[in-house]
Amino acid sequence: MDHYLDIRILPDPEFSPPLLLNALFSKLHRALAITQRSDIGASFPGYNLAPKGEGDNTLRPTLGQVLRLHGSAAALDSFMARNWLAGMRDHVTVGHIQPVPAGAGHIRVQRKQTKSNPARERARLMRRKGVSETEALRLIPDDKAKRLDLPYLTLSSQSTGQQQFRLFITQTAVAAGEQGEFNTYGLSPVATVPTF
Predict the structure, then answer these.
(1) What is the value of pTM for the model shown?
(2) Is 96 a catalytic residue?
(3) What confidence tens digit (pLDDT) does each residue in 131-172 have?
(4) Catalytic site residue from 29, 91, 96, 106
(5) Using CB atoms within 10 A as the burial measure, which of 64, 108, 145, 167 is most buried?
């Protein structure tokens, strides 16, 4: 992880930055799934766990407007040589592959999951344990839903075919860098990427 490349969302009067970031990240996921690359990591330099405000000025956690890819210069060069950004070129600017600045810190960027859909959990309980609908509702009421106050992307899964789910992201500072593989989202529960 000695090089990086920034892809910045451009302002667009028709599409919001989060919508464009969702589309960009979907394309990244598709390209990583097709190529089976595990040497490309992703991070979000604009990641911010903003506190919620009041009324119409509600501030929400955000991933920002930049997707940063990490890897070796050769890995990034060969990945970017593919035409995976087709359809997004008018909505982004792609930076140059650059070496990571000396003294950069390390972060772990990973997916955070929670059981946030009580109806799905009840259906799973009924299917797996043979519990009645009434009993499932008693065991898992609607107020048991867990909510994450993290930034997220809205995606469709290439591997499972699941439509429209939220991919919640955590970026956590760590003391030392860790080597490892990245999944088809460019995320890892073990490997770190530089932060600066």
Answers:
(1) 0.81
(2) no
(3) 898 888 888 887 765 667 889 999 876 556 657 788 999 999
(4) 29
(5) 108
